């Protein structure tokens, strides 16, 4: 595939405080070009303290609607609570995902005895016809992520299919998401699925040549996936090795109105916040106080 451009991820403050992330998109690649991918935040946080109470989360309770969310944590211990009644911890590198549908509230973080938490939060848009579906959820430890190693390359398949393997992130929009780690000088070749017309590679560590173009750490390579014949991706790691994430998908080409709620119009956003203010959000939830672990019924 032809390289359209190489852009550098920007800095974002998603929590409204001093914590920052490197944002591959939309900071480096605009929403129209990244479609169906809405956001990729690459984080590295040292927890404020080693141990949090069961109802304490560094990223507190907040709402989402109308999108799919993947939390892919590479170090530390993943932790999550939500309005569907889930209270989960998971080993890393592992994932926790939500297809938010008609709405969820969740909180996350604060696991792992103070170990540095490194990873990604990724938002994927969904078609307007699926934005108010019932929400779905999944947590997957390292053993449940299809992984392949060989010739200086490690691959984790997070979403979509490669051959007979399928990533565990169950998106409402067809995507392929792959995490590669390459040793110094190692190379790989990959064929993009024929149905997908968005292809972005985020180099988050080290450096590489991507289809002939140089990419340093925190560079995003946008590739031309419009041709039915040119579907190849070639990566060769530089002297410091390379870690890179592939984001491939089918463009929805629908209008976007969003914050933590992703709909097609401002009136739909206003409706969601009206439900929040009236206590009717999320419409699908457990019947107990999901913000208190002790309220969960005993099995």
From TrEMBL:
| Residue span, Pirin C-terminal domain | 177-281
Write out the GO MF terms. Answer: metal ion binding
Q: How is the cofactor bound?
A: Binds 1 Fe cation per subunit.
Q: Which Gene3D superfamilies match?
A: Jelly Rolls
**CDD domains named in the record:** cupin_pirin_C
Residues annotated as binding Fe cation: 62, 64, 106, 108
| Source domain of life | Eukaryota
Record keywords: Iron, Metal-binding
- Record bears the keyword Cytoplasm: no
What are its cofactors?
Fe cation
Entries under Pfam families matching the protein: Pirin (PF02678), Pirin_C (PF05726)
Asked if the record carries the keyword Iron, the reply is yes
Please list the residue ranges annotated as the Pirin N-terminal domain: 20-124
Q: What family is this protein classified in?
A: Belongs to the pirin family.
Q: What is this protein called?
A: Pirin N-terminal domain-containing protein
Q: Could you tell me which species this protein originates from?
A: Aureococcus anophagefferens (Harmful bloom alga)
């Amino acid at each position: 595939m032809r390289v359209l451009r190489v852009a550098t991820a920007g800095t974002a403050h998603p929590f409204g405080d001093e914590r920052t992330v490197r944002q591959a998109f939309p900071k480096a690649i605009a929403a129209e070009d990244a479609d169906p991918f809405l956001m990729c935040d690459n984080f590295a946080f040292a927890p404020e303290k080693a141990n949090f109470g069961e109802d304490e989360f560094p990223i507190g309770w907040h709402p989402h609607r109308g999108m799919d969310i993947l939390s892919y944590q590479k170090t530390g211990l993943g932790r999550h609570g939500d309005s569907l009644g889930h209270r989960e911890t998971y080993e890393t590198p592992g994932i926790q995902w939500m297809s938010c549908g008609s709405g969820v509230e969740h909180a996350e973080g604060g696991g792992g005895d103070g170990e540095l938490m490194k990873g990604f939060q990724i938002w994927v848009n969904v078609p307007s016809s699926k934005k108010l579906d019932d929400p779905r959820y999944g947590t997957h430890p390292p053993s449940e992520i299809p992984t392949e190693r060989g010739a200086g390359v490690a691959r984790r398949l997070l979403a979509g299919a490669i051959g007979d393997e399928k990533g565990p992130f169950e998106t409402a929009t067809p995507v392929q998401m792959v995490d590669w780690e390459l040793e110094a000088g190692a190379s790989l070749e990959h064929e993009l699925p024929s149905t997908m017309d968005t292809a972005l590679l985020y180099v988050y560590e080290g450096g590489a040549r991507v289809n002939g173009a140089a990419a340093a750490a925190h560079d995003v390579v946008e590739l031309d996936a419009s041709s039915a014949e040119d579907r190849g991706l070639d990566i060769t790691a530089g002297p410091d090795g390379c870690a890179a994430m592939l984001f491939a998908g089918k463009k929805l080409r629908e209008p976007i109105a969003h914050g933590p709620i992703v709909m097609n119009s401002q009136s739909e956003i206003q409706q969601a916040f009206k439900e929040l203010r009236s206590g009717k959000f999320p419409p699908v939830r457990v019947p107990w106080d999901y913000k208190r672990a002790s309220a969960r019924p005993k099995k």
